[in-house]
Design brief:
The complex is a heterotrimer. Chain A is of the alpha/beta class. In chain A, 36% of the residues lie in helices and 12% in strands. Chain A has one domain: Rossmann fold (3-Layer(aba) Sandwich). Chain A has a five-stranded parallel beta sheet, with helices on both faces. Chain A is globular and about 50 Å long. Chain B is 22% helix and 34% strand. Chain B has a domain of 87 residues: NADH:ubiquinone oxidoreductase Nqo5 subunit (Beta Polymerase, domain 2), CATH 3.30.460.80. In chain B, strands 1-2-5-4-3 form a five-stranded mixed beta sheet, covered by helices on one side. In chain B, strands 6-7 form a two-stranded parallel ribbon. Chain B is an alpha/beta fold. Chain C is an alpha+beta fold. Classes of the chains: A alpha/beta, B alpha/beta, C alpha+beta. At the A-C interface, strand 1, helix 3 and helix 4 of A face helix 5 of C. Chain C: InterPro entries: ComplexI_49kDa-like, NADH_Q_OxRdtase_suD, Ni-dep_hyd_lsu, NiFe-Hase_large. Chain C: It comes from candidate division TA06 bacterium DG_26. Chain C: It holds the Pfam family Complex1_49kDa.
């Protein structure tokens, strides 16, 4: 589990353009205290993951379905999942849309700012593969070209039940 | 043929006047007259500027300015051709704030210059998009 | 001392997650710079590579909330080009789906506006009843959003007779709850204090910027495509346009809430008048020419222009969504507001979402605030007003 965690924290091999100095802490992981902190964080993440929602060039439907999951009918908060306003507080990133050129730099910056370990969950068919937008001149995606995506939730848009299942499956992987 | 069409024909060099349906009227004016036509329609007849469509055609860059007359539901589309070797035209933005953004968009996607526009910065494309590549031009 | 408060770009909006730079002096906003393009996908570039029928699916995904308005305007443009007559039953079904979409979109806006003011009860309440609407749309069209109902010449699915009682039951429920809650929201002194006199967009500015939809109708500009250039069944059923002259945020909220009630009446009128028949006309080819289609989306007029050269694909397809005109008018509406009110003003044009998920407050180059700073500012203002007028949330909860 700990080795897996280290690999997840250092996705340098998948990611283009992410500055390497941000991941130098992997050398410090040899100290046991840091490992204990990471385990505690992982436990907290599984119990109550806080999510930050990143949208780039989406039609907003997936974004509305994510917000819908907070409303009384589906009620994500009973699982301890909270939508936070800053990536620094987040355990998981819900990414939607195709990635477009203008937003790419900002999305990568948001990913860098998110405290590791963090899960990246691609919501919607656009986050999985650009499909109908594949010929666009403004396309920089899909997301997994630049970020490690752990779970894909297809659907146009995926129903809130599917989103909850996606998050639960992602947590189950940990 | 509406009363407004007759007035336009009298005041400006209108060609190709076509009434496709009772609510869709198309006509062509030379590019030097477009500011006057727009002022006439917006200020004197209170037509609303809906949007402008720009297309790359064989004859040149065609810009269609769509003006809507809300009390009758008719859309007047004024066609203007801009030659490809001199892609400039007067901007409507100083007198018509509604045209501000669309002229920026046409400038960055098709490469037409709007003289007199207060801020012809790119609107939609990324900062690192090469400024000599125009996505809506055919053959790019 | 001038400060710049950048808002965005991380919040999904109708066309783009937008990046607003508010220039503030003290507490008042003196200027606004808008930077868009975070959502640009190049629909006009992709459309000519698809066939006429495929383009409907592309166009639907321009916006998820006005998901029906864009294909509706597109098929109207093609039908205008080719002079196709759509069967009567199809026109009624198109109107019903469009009005259901309008109610769901206005509920969404009211919920979010409530959230930004600090009334999470309003948010949860309106979105809970929105679920009934989405279930109804799933029953009629097959999906909660992205209905894919429009086809060139008609609609894709019919409304079955056995579904009509379920539709009427949901409409009765929605009408009762909307009327009840509208009265509660509009009579509340705290909400009035937050919204009245804020974000004034004068009638003159509204006309100069060409604003559309409830943004225009809240500023005294009586335009509505359903009255001015009626398509589908809008000229066959009785309904009223809602216009207010106050030019502030309260007027826009009133327009949207009262339009929901109007929409319920329109759907009932359509169901009464609908008679059995075809739902799709026979369309063989699209001749050369050009066509314009426009439809009143929840946010305003959606404008589509298509040009054909007789082949199977459009030569040019121009899309103009209402927020294109409405968001540009924020420059005029936001001047003179406080920062706490800026959230509401930028959201009042209903750009599908509000642009305040990710903001920073900078002073002298150093970051001062984080994350939800602007929303919290707005919610704090509401708390201060509650101490003056009493807490109305308990009253609202009592209604449930």
């Amino acid at each position: 589990m700990r080795f897996e965690l280290r690999l997840r924290c250092t996705p340098v091999s998948h990611t283009e353009g992410v500055r390497e100095k941000r991941y130098r802490y992997e050398n410090a992981l040899t100290t046991s205290i840091l490992e204990e902190i990471m385990n505690a964080k992982l436990w907290a993440l599984k119990k109550s993951p806080w999510v930050f929602h990143v949208c780039s060039a989406s039609c907003n439907n997936c974004d509305i379905e994510i917000l819908d999951a907070l409303t009384p009918k589906y009620d994500l908060e009973r699982f301890g999942i909270l939508l936070v306003g800053s990536p620094r507080h987040a355990d998981a990133l819900l990414v939607t849309g195709i990635l477009n050129r203008k937003a790419k730099e900002r999305v990568l910056r948001v990913y860098e700012q998110t405290a590791k370990p963090c899960l990246v969950i691609g919501i919607g068919t656009c986050a999985c593969d650009p499909n109908i937008f594949r010929n666009s001149y403004n396309l920089a995606g899909p997301y997994d070209k630049h970020l490690p995506v752990h779970v894909y939730v297809p659907g146009c848009p995926p129903k809130p039940e599917a989103i909850i299942m996606g998050v639960a499956k992602a947590l189950g992987q940990l | 043929m509406t009363e407004l069409c007759r007035q336009l024909e009298k005041k400006f060099e209108v060609t190709g006047l076509k009434e496709h349906t009772p609510k869709r009227i198309y006509m062509e004016v030379p590019r030097r007259q477009i500011s006057d036509v727009a002022k006439f329609l917006f200020q004197e007849h209170a037509l609303r500027f809906c949007i402008a469509t720009a297309t790359d055609t064989r004859r040149g860059f065609e810009i269609l300015y769509h003006f809507g007359e809300d009390k009758t539901g008719i859309i007047y589309s004024i066609r203007v051709f801009v030659p490809k070797d001199d892609p400039r035209i007067a901007s409507l933005a100083p007198s018509l704030p509604a045209a501000n953004w669309i002229e920026r968009e046409i400038h960055e996607l098709l490469g037409v210059d709007f003289d007199g526009h207060p801020n012809l910065e790119p609107l939609l494309t990324a900062e690192d998009w090469p400024r000599d590549r125009y996505p809506l031009r055919r053959g790019e | 001392m001038k400060r710049v408060v950048p808002i965005g770009p991380y919040h999904p909006l109708q066309e783009e997650p937008e990046f607003f730079k508010l220039q503030v002096e003290g507490e008042k906003v003196v200027g606004l710079e808008i930077n868009i393009g975070y959502n640009h996908r190049g629909h006009e570039y992709i459309s000519p590579t698809l066939t006429w029928d495929q383009a409907i699916f592309l166009v639907e995904r321009i916006c998820g909330i006005c998901s029906n308005s864009h294909p509706f305007a597109y098929v109207c443009a093609v039908e205008d080009l080719a002079k196709i007559r759509v069967p009567e039953r199809a026109e009624y079904i198109r109107t019903i789906v469009d009005e259901l979409q309008r109610i769901h979109s206005h509920f969404l806006w009211v919920g979010l506006a409530g959230h930004f003011m600090g009334y999470n009860t309003v948010w949860m309440w309106f979105w809970k009843y929105r679920e009934h609407l989405l279930d109804l749309l799933e029953l009629i069209t097959g999906n909660r959003n992205h209905y894919a109902m429009m086809k060139i010449g008609g609609v894709r699915r019919d409304i079955r007779e056995e579904d009509i009682p379920a539709i009427e039951k949901t409409l009765n429920l929605l009408e009762e709850k909307t009327a009840l809650f509208t009265r509660a929201v509009l009579d509340d002194p705290v909400i009035r204090a937050r919204l009245e006199g804020v974000g004034i967009l004068t009638t003159q500015d509204a006309i100069a910027y060409g604003v559309l939809g409830p943004t225009a109708r809240g500023s005294g500009v009586a335009i509505d495509v359903r009255k001015d250039d009626p398509i589908a069944a809008y000229s066959w059923i009785p309904w009223d346009m809602i216009v207010f002259d106050d030019c502030d945020l309260f007027a826009k909220a009133k327009v949207r809430l009262l339009e929901c009630l109007e929409s319920v009446k329109m759907i009932r009128a359509c169901l009464e008048r609908m008679s059995p028949g075809d739902i799709l006309a026979d369309v063989h080819e699209i001749p050369p020419g050009e066509g314009i289609g426009r439809v009143e989306a929840p946010r305003g007029e959606v404008f589509h222009y298509v040009r054909s050269d007789g082949s199977n694909m459009p030569v040019r397809h121009k899309v103009r969504a209402p927020s294109y005109m409405n968001v540009a008018s924020n420059v005029a509406a936001v001047k003179g507001c406080t920062i706490a009110d800026a959230v509401l003003v930028l959201a009042s044009v209903d750009p599908c979402y509000c642009c305040t998920e990710r903001i920073m407050v900078m002073q002298d180059g150093k970051q001062m605030g984080d994350g939800e700073y602007l929303i919290k500012l707005s919610q704090k203002t509401t708390e201060t007003l509650k101490t003056r007028y009493g807490d109305p949330e308990s009253k609202l909860r009592g209604l449930m």
